[in-house]
Amino acid sequence: MAGYSISKDDYAARLKKIEGQVRGLQRMIDDDKYCIDVLTQIGSVTKALQSVGVGLIDEHIRHCVQDAAARSDEEGDAKIHEATAAIARLLRT
Amino acid sequence: MAGYSISKDDYAARLKKIEGQVRGLQRMIDDDKYCIDVLTQIGSVTKALQSVGVGLIDEHIRHCVQDAAARSDEEGDAKIHEATAAIARLLRT
Amino acid sequence: MAGYSISKDDYAARLKKIEGQVRGLQRMIDDDKYCIDVLTQIGSVTKALQSVGVGLIDEHIRHCVQDAAARSDEEGDAKIHEATAAIARLLRT
Amino acid sequence: MAGYSISKDDYAARLKKIEGQVRGLQRMIDDDKYCIDVLTQIGSVTKALQSVGVGLIDEHIRHCVQDAAARSDEEGDAKIHEATAAIARLLRT
């Protein structure tokens, strides 16, 4: 089981909202809305997605890393390595 | 009318796919998928969104800026200013 | 000659300041400053660099694209393509 | 003392290289190099800086967070909160 169970509803609600925002983007394109306004909205959806990502990183460090570190240094190290690799990917998406 | 009408179907298809990916993220959270895998998927959706954004910037320069510049230097300048402000916002989302 | 000659001094001054900030980062590491404070400073230098980048994109659209478009549609298109490719790279650094 | 002492020389070498790259950017502007080439170089310096940032996040989790968590849950939580806040800032620079 993953470590983010506690705030699962919170993630679900945020992703539901992001899904609605993406549908809103489709309507904007469909209605020939001004491209700069669509861009502004894309920026806002990207920010919301990355904010979910930061939440997951927080959970990962808080649960997966700590639990693994309690088992052994090697397991803790492996989880930390995974976390920083994921952060690096998110920074360069 | 906005300048991206020509490839409207292409944008619609890409946003439809992004909407599906966001629903996929909801299922991943719901199924307690490993947080690092969810993060990787968030990176991929963010990239897809920013790619739509880059497409819109391209259209904006290609159509709105060129059309405005053909009318007057002032109008061209205003559209370029709008474009770079949008790029700056996208870089810092 | 590149299109940014007018504000060359401005770019020079901003890059000089960024160079000083990077030297400041070296001193922070050397003095064992707290890693979160170093990270905050890295964020600030990155922002300053990207701001120079946005300025260059603005110049490119304002000069290179417009000049090329005045010569022919093909040359204008090529410069716009170059610009959006550069923006895409900057978004994913 | 901060936790990154072990690889201090590595950070020093990377920042020294970044400083050289920023000086290279100044020469490019000074020599009227093509703006797209300057932009490509800015992307490369930004990437190098963010890579130093990711290294610091790794050290922070590996040392500061683990040490604090060994003292008390509250101190561990505070360090994790600091880390994720720094990651969020880095994502939005």
Helix content of chain A: over 70%
The overall pLDDT average of chain A reads 89
Q: Briefly, what CATH class of chain A?
A: Mainly Alpha
Task: Give the biggest beta sheet of chain A.
Answer: none
Q: List SSEs of chain A in N-to-C order.
A: HHH
Would you identify the regions of chain A where 5 or more consecutive residues have pLDDT less than 50? none
Tally of separate helices of chain A: 3
| The CATH fourth-level homologous superfamily of chain A | Metal-sensitive repressor, helix protomer
CATH architecture of chain A: Up-down Bundle
Describe the structure.
- Four copies of one chain form a homotetramer.
- By secondary structure, the first copy, chain A, is an all-alpha fold.
- Chain A has a single domain, classed as Up-down Bundle (Methane Monooxygenase Hydroxylase, Chain G, domain 1).
- Helix content of chain A is 85%, strand content 0%.
- Chain A has helices spanning 8-30, 35-71, 73-91.
- In chain A, helix 2 (35-71) packs antiparallel against helix 3 (73-91).
- The longest helix of chain A is centred in the middle third of the chain and has 37 residues, at 35-71.
- Chain A is elongated and about 55 Å long.
- Chains in contact: A-B, A-D, B-C, C-D.
- The interface between A and B is large, with 47 and 47 residues.
Which descriptors would you attach to this protein?
homotetramer, 93 residues, mainly alpha, Methane Monooxygenase Hydroxylase, Chain G, domain 1, 3 helices, 0% strand, elongated
